[in-house]
Write a structure and sequence with these properties.
With about 140 residues, the chain is mainly α. It contains 5 helices and 2 strands; from the N terminus they run ααααββα. It is globular.
Amino acid sequence: MNLQTLTKDLCAYNLWANHELVKQLTEKKEGTAADSIELPHINQKLSRLLAVEEEWMQKIRCKETRSPEERVFEGAIDALLKDLVVQSESFLNYVSELSEETLKEKVAFDISGGGDLKMSRYEMIQHTVGDSTHHRGEIVIS
């Protein structure tokens, strides 16, 4: 298996996991978070998950903007959930087009409080999916 396939599979997993999260959050079962999906802490954690994927996608594409203060999505929760899936699909589509050479290319970026760093796109993608997994876990245990 080559790096392109591994990376694409990793992003496909991320999309699947976000689909599953959305499905679980929108299923109506008595006594679950879906009963009260408008809870502020769920909205905040979903907003963070969306922001993390968006921020890393900008870094991977070398279109980084300085991170503004953390935003919490103010719209309907359904729109936030839809945005999460659409963004994950976009991430998978972008990554699917990258060559092995591009995946291995070192990219310079800034980490708030950490200064300038360099990392290969593959490592950045791997970090993004790992970070997304962490945030999904936080949502599930909320």
